[in-house]
Amino acid sequence: MTDSASQVAARLREVETRVAAAAARAGRSASDVQLVGVAKQVAAETVAQAVAAGLAHVGENYVNEAREKLPRVSALLDRQGLAWPRWHFVGRLQRNKARAVAMAFDCLHSLDRVELGDALDRHAASAGRQLDVLVQVDLAGEPQKGGLAPDAVPALLAASARWPALRIVGLMTIPPAAEHPEQSRSGFAGLRALRDALRTAPGGALLRELSMGMSGDFEVAIEEGATIIRVGTAIFGPRQ
Within 10 A of 82 (CB to CB), how many other CB atoms are there? Predict the structure, then answer.
């Protein structure tokens, strides 16, 4: 392994150790938590190194970047005889780019309007694919980040009955920027409570996932029930 690959592998191992410790504090198993390595602005070669080191889930924020990067990562892994990761789209998504996500990704974390669901379902169905989807929830009143207000989520879940190519499997949130991870705890707990309340609502039967927690606060998120964490810098280092 090159020094760069060694560094990526070491950071991944450190994050995995922290995940296991946080899960243990909450009486959970580390296997209950999917670690998504968010590879925004990370070179394809570095992403492939992380996958070779054991990263099974990779997230991207931008469609244009992903269009170029995903085939390159896949080709690098093919040369090594390694399995591809599960691809997650974690950024805000414009409806005119829904086809690209429906064709290339396995899971979308940022559904926040019915029109986007309609487009994703249409494109996934035409490709014979089924896409796992999480509803993004704005718990803090920060519309610039995307997401639905909590009281608007039931209507979107009800609309999902007409999307046979989409599976609404959970909720996602991005808490406000905070100086200390503990400041995000109440938001994470709120998302868990919302998911639990919506499981009996129309369209809520498959709700199990909670995508919450990033490099600065994922341990608190795990303690509050996160089943997916989105970690970039702690694995790949600071963005250039």
Answer: 13
% of the chain at pLDDT higher than 70: 98
DSSP string covering 229-240: EEESHHHH-S--
CATH topology of domain 3-236: TIM Barrel (3.20.20)
Give the C-alpha distances (Å, rounded to integers) separating 150 from 18, 22, 140, 190, 221.
30, 27, 10, 10, 18
Predicted confidence (pLDDT) per residue in 21-53, tens digit: 999 999 999 999 999 999 999 999 999 999 999
Which H/E stretch holds residue 63?
helix 63-79
Q: Are 20 and 30 in contact (CB under 8 A)?
A: yes
Find out whether 32 and 41 touch, Cβ atoms under 8 Å: no
Distance CA 128, CA 145 (A): 31
d(CA 82, CA 178): 38
State the virtual CA torsion across 109, 233, 77, 85 in degrees, nearest 10.
-30
Question: What is the rounded radius of gyration, in angstroms, for the C-alpha atoms of the chain?
Answer: 17
Q: Which residues contact 73 (CB under 8 A, 6 or more apart)?
A: 44, 47, 48, 51, 58, 84, 85
DSSP H or E stretch at residue 118: helix 114-126
User: Please, what is the average pLDDT of the chain?
Assistant: 96
d(CA 156, CA 168): 10
From first CA to last CA, the distance across the chain in angstroms is 22
The CA-atom distances, in angstroms, between 143 and each of 139, 148, 190 are 10, 8, 17
